[in-house]
Amino acid sequence: MSALAFFSSPLGWLRVEAGAQGLRLVRFAGVPSDEERGAGWRFVEEFFDFAEAYFAGSQNPYPGRLDLSAASSRQRRLWLQTMQIPYGRTLSYAALGKLLDMHPRSVGAGMRAAPLLLVIPAQRVIYADGGIGGFAGREGAKAWLLQFEKRNLRV
DNA sequence: CGCTCGCACATGG
DNA sequence: CCATGTGCGAGCG
């Protein structure tokens, strides 16, 4: 059995999963269920520390171990590149794609599939014209995160 | 100019 | 297959 827990964030519950190899999944959850303290529990705890700091205004990138083994090599490249975007900054789908020689539309598809909320800062990828872009049907959350980060930059 | 519209393009589900 | 978390250039007023 692997590890499962739910983090209570300002945006609602986040489902957090990890395995022996590292953090596997962080996404919005509905109602939390029972946690499972199986293999990789320490990775879940690492995320909790990170998330608490993040929502308290910390600008540090995620320091823990990730398990991206379920991803295609293309997704991995894209997600790792996305993690290079500095806190509070944004990049367009096209700009991000150019770095990896990917079509902007594919970047969108890759972002949609990103499994690690906050850890892979997909909220920092927006339209070339400054528009918000999508966020798996939660554009409100994306706007919230961007605004939150922008405010913290000033402080 | 600014806005709409259509289509090419590459991935992922 | 096909829908898409895009971009860009053409056409129009």
Provide the low-confidence segments as ranges: none
As laid out across the biggest beta sheet, the strand order is 3-2-1-4
Number of strands: 6
Strand-residue proportion: 15-25%
Terminal CA distance reads 42 Å
Cα-based radius of gyration, to the nearest Å: 15 Å
Under CATH, the topology of the largest domain is which? Arc Repressor Mutant, subunit A
**In terms of structural class, how would the helical and strand content be classed?**
alpha+beta
Largest sheet: 4 strands, antiparallel
Q: Secondary-structure element order, as H and E? A: EEEEHHEHHEH
Judging from the principal axes of the Cα atoms, what is the shape? Answer: globular
CATH classification class of the largest domain: Mainly Alpha
The CATH architecture assignment of the largest domain turns out to be Orthogonal Bundle
The CATH superfamily of the largest domain turns out to be Winged helix-like DNA-binding domain superfamily/Winged helix DNA-binding domain
Q: How helix-rich are the residues, as a percent range?
A: 25-40%
**Mean of pLDDT:** 96
How many individual helices? 5
Number of domains: 2
